[in-house]
Amino acid sequence: MKALFLILGVIFMSNQSFAANDKAEITEVIKTYEKALNGNDVPAIMKLYAEKPIFMPQHAPAQIGTEAVENAYKGVFKALDLDIKFEIYEIEAMGNTAWARTSSAGKTKILANNAIVSEGNNELFVFKKEKGMWKIHRYLFSTNQPRQ
Fold first, then answer.
1. Domains in the chain, please, with CATH?
2. Residues 1-16: pLDDT tens digits?
3. What pTM, to 2 d.p., does this model score?
4. How far apart are the C-alpha atoms of 10 and 18, rounded to whole Å?
5. What is the C-alpha to C-alpha distance for residues 41 and 16, in angstroms, rounded to an integer?
6. Does residue 98 contact residue 75 with C-beta atoms inside 8 Å?
7. How far apart are the C-alpha atoms of 109 and 69, rounded to whole Å?
8. Torsion-angle region of residue 29: left (phi > 0), alpha (psi -120 to 50) or beta?
9. What is the pLDDT of residue 94?
10. How far apart are CA 92 and CA 62, in angstroms?
11. Are 136 and 49 spatial neighbours (Cβ–Cβ below 8 Å)?
12. CA distance 42 to 64
């Protein structure tokens, strides 16, 4: 019986440290994504995505696959210059899948007219662990700003 409790204790402690490591790694992915968005850095963004990504921006169809996701970001950066910061509220990991609920806020410069507007979104990231690294598998966002 003592052996069973010892084994269960070791498993429990392993899962706690595993979850803590996952949370730290996923937090770093989100922070790196934030920096890449603010720097209009499409290659850096694409390194964060999984092999079969889906990007689901508001007011647009889902962008499915690496080429579509990459082209979507190129289009974003032709139209906008972002200066935002992410706030992370939750990160949950189960095996090789994880999700994070975030929001972002800041300013967006609309390049067509140089107007600067307030930016704010709610986001849901789904991550997959590929080759030992957490990657963005699915990303969905929608505005949390009042209608204009």
1. 2-143 (3.10.450.50)
2. 555 444 544 445 444 4
3. 0.86
4. 12
5. 34
6. no
7. 21
8. alpha
9. 87
10. 24
11. yes
12. 16
